[in-house]
Design brief:
Chain lengths: 255, 431
């Protein structure tokens, strides 16, 4: 593995919802060249922790984050950090596909447009095509870019959301159970996609599917009851876990 | 529960543990299905009956208003033989072409000449009293169009007095109807342009609705321009930006209460604040609009908050996660999706404001106003107040004017709602 500094680092992160603590003292490094998987039983705080990385928790009333999170060494929670730019740099794909009720083209073009990334209309069209191609959706929608994004199938919608996220050219992409609503074929396409995107973006993916974590990720973090139980190379976690709890979880003894 | 579903099942200790598969063909099951269908049917009939009942009410209202008010748009005219050459009016052709033609004709005694002509033509049945106050004005228009009339004999159709008008339309006293029968060959009907183009008058045949309609338009314009942006921005702030605390709770309760305050109280408020403190002109559309805006804003705030709150959070999250700023989230995503709901609330509020009388009476919009308002600060009246004033008038001629004014108000309302529905459909997002 490389010795380059990690893309994102979190150390000693606690998250509270009101008085309730959802994340306890979690420290993790996310590396640029890896796909990092978060696994763990439902309600253990995977989504919560994922959202701290691009400050999406800011909008939840009562949510409080403490600890240190850095993107390329910059303090994400510093007063001087521009949240809007941070979210452009750290994109997110949600569990439930949530395309805008606009045309397919507008869905993908929205991000580049608000950040002024396109120099001309042709340039914008090119960005849209490239993003849709990378998301593996171009061939299916190239003749119907004007149709509503919500008229696509669930799997197509999720790929549209991925295309929308990469159109902004982020540095990190956070995916919260992107395949939970999809059939095996669509899931396989998205896994393929993650494979293709690896290296270009640092990718963090939350998943309930052990095989998926094993297939797509190089690093795996196991969460339990708001704590990070074990974090290491995916091959080690799945073949030779250090912790009893990890072993129980991945062998399906609870969850 | 299972006992009631399958009553035939023997209840013994051994069998109650092991449940048998449900038999969907038992008599009780069949009854259940029948009852379900019956309930569906009842419900559908109930809904249909409700729709039919409300449609019938609306039809009845429209039909009775049309039956009684249609006459208000029609005037009775009498063919008046005129010999203006003999009347010897002192007007030069140059004066008739100039801008002061009206003044010249009035000064030369045209009104007296018209009255004399009526006395000569209809001596025993009433003479000049048969003519509307507007009759000589109609002659004046004709003379201006064709100055040759001053030098020859001619017959001109002029509007008749209210009494004869009513009698010709089949109402009034028996004596008046007898006169109408006698004169029938000379009488005719035509569109009452004074009604559509004029303002209030003491003579019902001259009274017009345009003044009140224009007053309503100006008032609604002021109300819309104030209440819509203030209402929408308040709702946006409360939903998207305001922290949830005791203060915002207090504001929310106040707004909900404001929407329920009787409208006359807003009138008193307008009287005290706009007229008392700021010394704005009385009876003006500006003040009327301000007062109605006070009343309409809370309605729009409530509707807009509901519409904004109904925008799925996932859309906001999607936009935020792309790096949209809060303002961009609101204006690119939340507002467009909430707009149909906001428009619906705005229509309801504006329709209520359009029909409002009480608060406007408080700020002096009940004055007799004989000219349509030119500016927002001119004295004006509005349709419902005009209807109220006419329905209060003792002259029989105002009865059909009242109904006609109600028709105009309803048409205005329909036009407004139609526009709003069109706009709502245009902005509707298909998911
Ligand atoms: N908005 C919120 N307000 C209060 N508590 C919350 C909120 N969101 C999550 N929680 C709580 O925080 C804990 C962690 O939730 P989180 O959604 O991060 O779990 P998760 O690991 O993503 O679960 P799943 O796998 O089911 O998605 C849970 O106990 C949950 O009840
Ligand atoms: Mg989750």
């Amino acid at each position: 593995m490389s010795n380059a500094p990690p893309k994102m680092t979190a150390s000693g992160v606690d998250v509270f919802y009101g008085a309730k603590q959802a994340i306890r003292n979690v420290s993790i490094d996310v590396r640029q060249e890896d796909v990092t998987a978060f696994i763990g039983p439902s309600g253990c705080g995977k989504s919560t922790f994922l959202r701290t990385l691009n400050r999406m928790n800011d909008t939840i009333p009562g949510a409080r984050v403490s600890g240190d999170i850095r993107l390329d060494g910059e303090d994400v929670y510093a007063k001087t950090m521009d949240v809007v730019q941070l979210r452009a740099r750290v994109g997110m794909v949600f569990q439930k596909p949530n395309p805008f009720p606009k045309s397919i083209f507008e869905n993908v073009a929205y991000g580049p447009r608000i950040h002024g990334l396109a120099r001309s209309r042709a340039d914008l069209a090119q960005i849209v095509e490239r993003s849709l191609t990378r998301a593996g959706l171009w061939n299916e929608v190239k003749d119907r870019l004007g149709d509503s994004g919500t008229a696509l199938s669930g799997g197509q919608q999720q790929r549209l959301c991925i295309a929308r996220a990469i159109a902004v050219d982020p540095e990190v992409i956070l995916m919260d159970e992107p395949c939970s609503a999809l059939d095996p074929v669509a899931t396989a396409r998205i896994e393929e996609l993650i494979h293709d995107l690896r290296g270009r973006y640092a990718i963090v993916i939350v998943t309930h599917n052990m095989q998926q974590a094993a297939r797509v990720s190089q690093r795996t973090a196991f969460f339990h009851l708001g704590q990070l139980v074990e974090y290491g190379d995916t091959s080690d976690i799945f073949t030779n876990p250090r912790e009893e709890r990890t072993k129980d979880y991945i062998t399906g003894r609870y969850g | 529960m299972s006992k009631s579903l399958v009553p035939e099942a023997p209840v013994s200790a051994a069998q109650s543990v092991e449940r048998r598969p449900t038999d969907w063909r038992t008599a009780s099951m069949q009854r259940r299905v029948r009852q379900r269908y019956a309930a569906e049917r009842r419900f559908r009939w109930l809904g249909l009956a409700a729709v039919v009942a409300s449609a019938a009410f609306l039809l009845f209202l429209l039909a009775s208003m049309l039956a009684r008010g249609a006459g208000g748009f029609v005037e009775t005219r009498i063919a008046l033989p005129l010999d203006l050459a003999r009347a010897g009016l002192d007007v030069t052709p140059a004066q008739l072409r100039g801008p002061r033609a009206d003044l010249a004709l009035a000064g030369a005694g045209l009104e007296r000449a018209v009255d004399t002509a009526a006395e000569t033509a209809f001596p025993r049945v009433g003479g000049a009293a048969l003519l509307s106050d507007a009759a000589w004005l109609r002659v004046r228009e004709a003379v201006k169009r064709d100055p040759g009339l001053l030098g020859r004999r001619a017959t001109i159709d002029v509007p008749v007095a209210s009494r004869l008008d009513i009698a010709f339309k089949g109402g009034g006293t028996r004596a008046d109807r007898a006169i109408a029968r006698t004169l029938a060959p000379q009488l005719s009907r035509g569109l009452n342009r004074d009604f559509l183009g004029g303002a209030d008058s003491t003579d019902p045949t001259r009274a017009g609705i345009w003044g009140a309609l224009k007053g309503s338009l100006l008032t609604m314009l002021v109300t819309l321009l104030l209440a819509f942006p203030i209402g929408v921005f308040s709702a946006l702030y409360l939903e998207e930006y305001a922290p949830r605390n005791r203060w915002t709770d207090l504001i929310e309760v106040s707004i909900n209460n404001l929407a329920a305050v009787p409208s006359i109280i807003f009138g008193l408020l307008g009287l005290a604040v706009f007229l008392g403190t700021f010394h704005m002109p009385r009876s003006a559309a500006l003040v009327g609009g301000l007062t109605l805006a006070l009343m309409t804003t809370p309605v729009i705030v409530i509707a807009a908050r509901n519409a904004i709150g109904a925008v799925p959070p996932s859309i906001r999250d999607a936009a935020r996660a792309l790096g949209a700023s809060p303002v961009q989230v609101v204006f690119h995503h939340v507002l467009p999706l909430a707009l149909p709901g906001i428009l619906t609330g705005t229509i309801i509020g504006m329709a209520r404001a359009l029909g409002e009388t009480a608060p406007l009476l408080m700020i002096g919009m009940r004055a007799f106003i004989a000219a349509p308002p030119e500016r927002l600060t001119d004295p004006a009246t509005v349709l419902p107040v005009q209807i109220f004033l006419w329905s209060d008038d003792v002259q029989a001629g105002f009865v059909e004017k009242t109904s006609a004014a109600i028709i105009v108000l309803l048409v205005f309302l329909l036009a407004m709602n139609g526009l709003a529905i069109y706009l709502r459909n245009r902005f509707e997002t298909r998911w």
